[in-house]
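forwarding from the other thread:

> can someone predict this with glutamine?

sure thing
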Amino acid sequence: MNASPGPLSIGVLALQGAYGAHAKALIALGAIPRLVRVPKELEGLDGLIMPGGESTTMLKFLERNAFFDILQTYVKSTPTFGTCAGAILLATHVEGPAQRSLAALDITVERNAYGRQIDSTILTSDTALPGGPLEMVFIRAPRITRTGPTVETLATRDGFPTLVRSGHLLAATFHPELSGDPRVHQLFLNLVREHQSTA
Ligand code: GLN
């Protein structure tokens, strides 16, 4: 019963965007990344990361093979971490402009709220995570403009949440896979373990 748990198998949605760096961050923490390109590849995973990239492009790919509907059901019960475009996909409400989403995490996001590509930036901010300030890489980032009552804010930029958690779901408006700091991926792996022990 109490055998030490094996490595976690974590899917990385690999339709488009920054999935490779997430896979590397997972390996560094002892997890096994599995690239997910078709719905069948979701089988047997302990959790899923949806990377940054372009959410509209990801949505186009998700329209194939009923992937959108399958993913929508999947994220309701499986630990999922959305970064940047992935956070946009998870949100219940998307603005700037409005677009379809999986509507799993009770937040409103405003796309490209910090300006165009040239305004992409690296900031360091206080965080609720142990270990001191957190570096955050923003690339045409969305802004979380509303969080529902179950959503906990773990880091902010100018008073707006940048890292949020609600139950088995985690979302970041920045790219933790592009900083050397493993704490955000570790937080997700902890959340996955926690979910398994309460399931
Ligand atoms: N601007 C992108 C979008 O709206 C997100 C950018 C990112 O993921 N780095 O989907």
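Residues 52-55, 84-85, 88, 111-112, 139-140 surround glutamine (CB under 6 Å). thats all i got for now
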